[in-house]
Amino acid sequence: MRRFTAALFLIGLAVLIAGIYQQMSFYGASVNLGQAINSMAPNQVGSANLVTSVVLAYRGLDTLVELSILFTAATAAGMLLHRRKPATKTDPDGGFVLRAGSDLFFPLLVVVGIYIILHGHLTPGGGFQGGVILACAFFVPLLARPGQQLDQRWISLLEGLAGAAFILIGLLAMIDGAAFLTPLLGKGELGSLFSAGSLPVLYTAVGLKVGAELAGLLAHLSAQDALD
Amino acid sequence: MDMTLVLYVGAAGLILIGIGGIVLSRHLVRIIFSIALLESGANLLLLISSYRDGTAAPIMLAQGFPASMADPVPQALVLTAIVIGVGILALALVLALRVQAAYGTLDIRQMRERMEQDIAEEAGIPMLTSSQAPLPVSPDNGDKS
Amino acid sequence: MAWFALIIVIVMLASALAVLLLKDFLSALAAFSVVSLALSVLFVLLRAPDVAMTEAAIGAGLSSLLFALALRKLGLWRSAKDAA
Asked: Which parts of chain A fold into alpha helices (H)?
């Protein structure tokens, strides 16, 4: 009986979603906004990656809200986890291959992460992708040496400073009377590393904040007691 | 065969599997898997709206911008949505850890029974049952999908 | 190009079903990583390389890592053969 009602429910849901496809037209009025941004963004913002100009310049406030959502989730998760007591049992230490491999991986991942963050306005990439890679770079050595812990005070400090830097750069634009998070520092030459004004600086702040947050969360989660 | 139709079927299928998993699963971790699948399906659905046939990625190439580019606004929104999804996932998994520490089980039916027992004990009244209540969960059911 | 997208969509939907139907949580985690990988290939086909990179890094990387850590702390990290 339960299987029958479950199948009925899923069939009804599939009919609803198919009905939405009939009604929804994907090539509607929102095309005009995208085409307008495609034609005006290189001259207004000066970044070669148009998605970056949308994320940081045209919809910068959404990025700020996303950073606060991520901060809330990571802080709430950190509050719910137990503190690690030093006398509890830990997993056994990884072998030589794991330790040597993770020590070799660490500088590579840090370089790749910083590269992706800094070139976010030129190639696909940016603060979020590079931040995730940096978080994994700082977490992989913890997998090889389970007793080690990251220093949570430095991580919180870095995260707070990076978030404050993002908001401060946004507020600096208001000094001259422009709107919050207007790009500063001029446009520069399209396609070079020092172009698109304050966008690389904003993405650096975003990358450091996301990286520190996720590394702290992963370290805290891996320091819990396993159940068996 | 239109690529938009194929991808729409994929997104709809993921959303369907996600919602079906949330409604029909009994283990909390499987519900969390289904939430992640539902988010992935919704992101794919949102990104389909940015695609036109014959366009290129909205990134400058060596010889300048391509003639016709895809819409960058849904791409920026989906970027945000994916990162928010991982934040939600982290909080959900930590909550599942604490729920197991508090109730000792991750099966939602046993959890509900123990919650009702706790509430009844706190209030000092016997637990409410009815003649039509479902039979108690037997411990050998394991977890079904 | 539509045929390639069709194959990737079939792989993705089959793996999504496997996430729900597999008893063993370790295998469900592997199927979930396959869903993320197929999704990032679809994002490339939709002309969104930025989003594809984010999905590959976060979905197949960080999300699976979070699940693996949580499964370990919940005591669900055994495959079916170990329990015997």
From this structure: 2-23, 31-44, 50-52, 60-80, 96-118, 127-144, 152-172, 199-222
CB pairs < 8 Å spanning A and C: 46
Give the separation between CA C25 and CA A73, rounded to whole angstroms. Answer: 24
C43 falls within a domain: yes
Whether ipTM tops 0.85, in short, is yes
Is C82 a member of any domain?
A: no
Within-domain flag for B135: no
Whether residue C64 is contained in a domain is answered as yes
Q: Do C66 and A221 touch (CB under 8 A)?
A: yes
Kindly determine whether residue A123 and residue B59, on different chains, have CB atoms separated by under 8 Å. Answer: yes
In a domain, B132, yes or no: no
Q: How many domains does chain B have?
A: 1
Residues A155, A156, A157, CA angle at the centre, nearest 5°?
90
Alpha carbon A35 to its chain centroid, in Å, reads 27
Instruction: Give B-chain residues touching A51 at CB under 8 angstroms.
Output: 58-59, 72, 75-76, 79
- Contact map slice: A 33-72 vs C, CB within 8 A: 49, 51-52
- When mean pLDDT is compared across A190-199, B89-98, C47-56, the lowest value belongs to A190-199
pLDDT (tens digit, 9 = 90+) per residue, A103-145? 998 999 999 999 999 998 888 888 899 999 999 999 988 888 8
**Distance of CA B113 to CAs B99, B110, B136, Å?**
14, 5, 8
The residue segments making up the domain with residue C30 are 24-76
Please indicate, yes or no, if residue C15 is contained in any of the structural domains: no
Of B15, B20, B87, the CB nearest to A70: B87
Number of domains into which chain C is organized: 1
Which domain covers residue B78, as residue numbers?
3-53+71-125
Cα C33 to chain center, whole Å? 2
Nearest by Cα to A53 from A64, A42, A62: A42
Q: What residues form DSSP beta bridges with B61?
A: B64
Alpha carbons C18 and B34: distance in angstroms, whole number: 11
* Contact assignment for B6 to C9 by CB distance below 8 Å: yes
Contact: C54, B6; criterion CB under 8 Å: no
Choose, out of C13, C17, C53, C64, the residue to mutate when testing the contact with A (most A CBs < 10 Å). C53
